[in-house]
Amino acid sequence: MDTLDRTGRPEAGIDAGDLVREDRIHRGVYSHPEVFDLEMRRIFNRTWVFVGHESEVTNTGDFKASYIGTQPVILTKDENGEIRVLVNRCPHRGSIVCREAKGNSNFFRCPYHGWTFKNTGDLVGVPRRKRYPEDFDLSELNLQQVPRVENYRGLVFASFNPEIEGLVGYLAQAKPYVDAFLDLSVEGEISLSAGANQHEYPGNWKFQMENGVDGYHAMFLHDSFFKIQARSQDRVHARIASRDEGKGWTEAFSNGHAILAREAGDKTIDELKSAHPEYFARLEEKHGPERFRELMAQMNIFIFPNLYLILNQVRVIRPVSPTKTVVNMYPVMLNGAPEELNEQRLREHEEGFSAAGFVGPDDYEAFACVQEGLKAESVEWLVLLRGIHDEKVLENGSRWGQPSDETPQRGQYREWRRLMTMDGEAK
Predict the structure, then answer these.
(1) Where does the Rieske domain start and stop, copy by copy (predicted)?
(2) Measured torsion, CA atoms of residues 91, 92, 96, 100, in degrees rounded to the nearest 10
(3) Is the pTM higher than 0.85?
(4) Are 215 and 336 found together in one domain?
(5) Distance CA 153, CA 150 (A)
(6) pLDDT digits (tens, 9 = 90+) for 83-131
(7) Which of 11, 34, 181, 346 pairs with 262 at a CA distance of 20 to 30 A?
(8) Are residues 206 and 279 in the same domain?
(9) Could you tell me if residue 198 is inside a domain?
(10) Up-side HSE of residue 336: CA atoms within 13 Å toward CB?
(11) DSSP characters for 29-78?
């Protein structure tokens, strides 16, 4: 059966099924170009991929440049208020038509030959059109529409797969946790209006996929940061470091989704109520004491293949090449919250995840170290054994483990293997 040889090079093509076992990952999964290309076609072209939030396109004509895997797309709101996702590629000679990260315009003009498109995708202008044949039909050369676009509570996903199941069904057992992340707003809505910080690291995109639900590394990689934060108990990172009395767990859901979470203990809840009594009183009154306690949990939620909802942020993974990844982190503002609470959330995000922060740069340095280490040809497999001996299968089909177990990663790679070995590809 075709696979990779000891150097990570293909012997005669790639059989992705040979590269992932229940407790092992072959080193070629993270570095080989053919694996990466297959991921873009069979994972990112087939699944629901997060492309943006509705708060980024609130007005008619608003747009944001985004990606589905390596394919550039445009998230935009047309004059009828419909959110569309267009392929950012001129059908004439292939240039992108939108070069700005975000803005407002009802039209996109190709910088190469000046072809102009409405934000519905319709081609409306071709300079010096007389040199084209009389039967030249503009309607056949519109910007391509991504066939499936759905919005779940402001989170906008798109898919090139016209036959994919609905987004709510795709979220599966992760949906209640997504709801909890959003319900921390007393209005049930969040905003990404504070902008984003972007990071790039010299490593494979799946390192970030794995790491956000890895409860094993933090006590070592981020030890110095937690010691600093422990001196200031009003900060969210200090509450994570202290672990207080809350119970932690990991869970692997259907479709590759996962969570790393810790229940909020009484100490955490009391500190939050003390810092912002009026807001959290409103939140508890709206949801009741039991649900309120659930909302206070610390959650890292992964929606396969590219979205994280982590603490105070939305994190988006963009694969660029087998050994290059871009990550965008958006601090989450809670609609209906007092300005001082959202300001505190923003400051905490900056402390941990800005370019000068403590947590994000630690992670990216570790990813670079792993990518470098994978050049060692004599060791072919990475190990995902932690907690496998007492992993529990729950009634809803998800798998449950302890906070430092590799239960989420095994679930991610079960879905990776399933998609990578399916016949056919979304176009």
Answers:
(1) 48-133
(2) -100
(3) yes
(4) yes
(5) 10
(6) 999 999 999 999 999 999 999 999 999 999 999 999 999 999 999 999 9
(7) 346
(8) yes
(9) yes
(10) 16
(11) GGT-HHHHHHHIIIIITTS-EEEEEGGGS-STTEEEEEEETTEEEEEEE-
